[in-house]
Amino acid sequence: MIKLKQFESILQQVKDFEEPKIKYEQYCTNSHLASHILYNIATKFGFEEKSVIDLGCGTGMLTIGCSILGANQILSVEIDPNALEIAKENISDLIFEDSSNSEEEDGDEEEEDGVEEEEQEQEEEEEEEEQEQEQEQEQEQKEEQNSENEEQKVIKEIISLDDITLVECDVFKLTQKEIIEIYGEDIRFDCAILNPPFGTKIKGVDVKFVTKALEFIKPGGSVFSFHKTTTRKFLIKHFTNMGYNVDVLFQVKFDLPKSYKFHRKKNVEIMVDILHITKK
């Protein structure tokens, strides 16, 4: 396994959110914490040759860490297209040095007609104007239809980067049906790695993230999730009552830097539990 110092050095290069969105409680896990947390999990449980799902992957910090530590199949889900684009860049830069981005080429057809007589030219111009108007109307109808279809689609975009698949999708709308759509088969994951919103803006969202992750885990699989220590008793009771084992792997001090205009302090330190949740 890679040395911890080298591992942290790689994660230091992961780009943060350019414009974090408060409604998603977007904070990038700093490289020091991410490297030590993942390294500890890898030492105790291992990521080697395992499949991992990262819900709310942000700019890819945990995804990249799991990949470096040996995970051979990772599904990273993120609702924010801007964050997902940064994650794509981070993964391409830090893991796949020779990766090339596919580009879509659009061909525009141009028609040029040489006509000598002025009357014929005028007639053709009028016909072309009518055709253009019809085409514009058709295009508007298609765009409206596409917009309606896009709103109905759960998965907005799929980006495959070797063993890592990035998906733009609302985590809570993701089901096993979409997993089958992505991979072409019904698969479950060995583990989930989550740094969910703490629930500061939306009460209970942290619980919903873990509950959703448990849907996609194999029997005997694990969910590793980050939560404020102040919620420890509630979370242990909640998931124990649901039939799961809950262990506190360790406790860390999160240093949250000033990310939003309304923040008054340069940084805030909070205690965070790394929970390990498995089926009984």
UniProtKB/TrEMBL annotation:
Entry-linked Gene3D superfamilies: Vaccinia Virus protein VP39
Acidic residues: compositionally biased ranges: 100-138
Basic and acidic residues composition-biased segments: 139-150
Coiled coil regions in record: none
Keywords for this protein: Methyltransferase, Transferase
InterPro entries on file: rRNA_MeTrfase/Polyamine_Synth, SAM-dependent_MTases_sf
Record keyword Cell membrane present: no
Entries under CDD domains matching the protein: AdoMet_MTases
Residue segments, region Disordered: 95-150
Tagged with keyword rRNA-binding: no
GO molecular function: rRNA (adenine-N6-)-methyltransferase activity
Name of protein: Methyltransferase-like protein
Organism in which the protein naturally occurs: Anaeramoeba flamelloides
